[in-house]
Amino acid sequence: MLQSQLFPKTRKEPPKEAESINHKLLVRAGFIDQLMAGSWTLLPLGWRVVNKINQVIREEMNAIGGQEVLMPLLHPKNIWNETGRWDKAKEVMYQFKDSRGREYALSFTHEEIVMDLLRKNIKSYTDLPVAVYHFSTKFRNEARARSGILRGREFLMKDLYSAHTTEKDFWKYYGEVRDAYSKIFTRLGFDFRITEAGGGVFTDNNTHEFQVLAEGGEDTIFCCKKCDWGVNQEIFDEKKAEKCPECGGEIIKAKAIEVGNIFPFGTWYSERMHVYYSDKDGGKKPVFFGSYGIGCTRVMGAWVEVSHDERGIVWNKAMSPFDAHLIELPGAKDAKSVYETLKKEGIEVLWDDRDVPAGEKFADADLIGIAVRLVVSEKTQDKVEWKGRSEEKSQLIELTEAVKKLT
To answer: Which of 157, 181, 195, 287 is at a distance of 20 to 30 A from 249, taking alpha carbons?
Structure first.
């Protein structure tokens, strides 16, 4: 990709209304654009990052037997009435009537839709278990959309839903999803904790959240210094706050950003929506059901909150919009040849071919934050100057070595 053709250009100043770091940097660097409060356009750089995130998620969902689908965003009132959530979730749902007076909602989640799919297609115990997931837009009527892309009224999310014949099989899969989520956030490079939490408008059961430790986070969690125990502030019992209930270790309080959650529903949804299967003896049984979510766009915002410096964003290899940022300076021997060589090797490159001062090129490179910067100039001759975005020093290396390191 030629930087001279990249849309849009970077900005020198953040939006006046921006308070959070991700809002300031993602807008300045040209990753996102705000249409209105809580509604964002993913620009070319932002879409590349989210696709990188989604691919990591997709690989781990497929590894535990998830099958990818795509479900509607427009839902009829009657399906939400089956569980009573048309009224129970009214505060967060966008509800409206069409020109014929029929009532609909925009999806804020898809439990009822999956239940409808299951009852149409599940008959026997031989049809279970089933796990389906999709990447889809969600709409939630946030009272105060804030924190940049972290809390929106419209956002991209991955939902996985699973149905099982027994509670034992459900909890086995719940553990597999928990492990898969841990792999996802480890691969993406986060320092995170798994905490117990309430179920909100989703369930009366306690759930589990995946929380990224971040000074700018709006959630407060309590976790143990020694073991994996953790809860969010909502269910933290201050009366028992002295020691960890699991190992007796010290409990610490921390700010965090929720990037994922998993919900155990048992048979609550299947009983209300009549989703049954026939067991080996011909008996009629309700399916055990769970739901598991990751906020894809939220993950991008969370990374920027925890990985930046005074110059801009610091992407890692897993999420970087390009593998390398090629900076061409005056006197460079053949920048185009370097660019073509990298592309031929399957390396995704942003080539700064613009006719602007070197200082502007370096400032934009730091702001955008691509994981690796390669400089070609009169000084480098047949070599390239390699510098990781998170590193202080650069090194002069052969192009073949740079290709090897990037692949």
So the answer is: 181
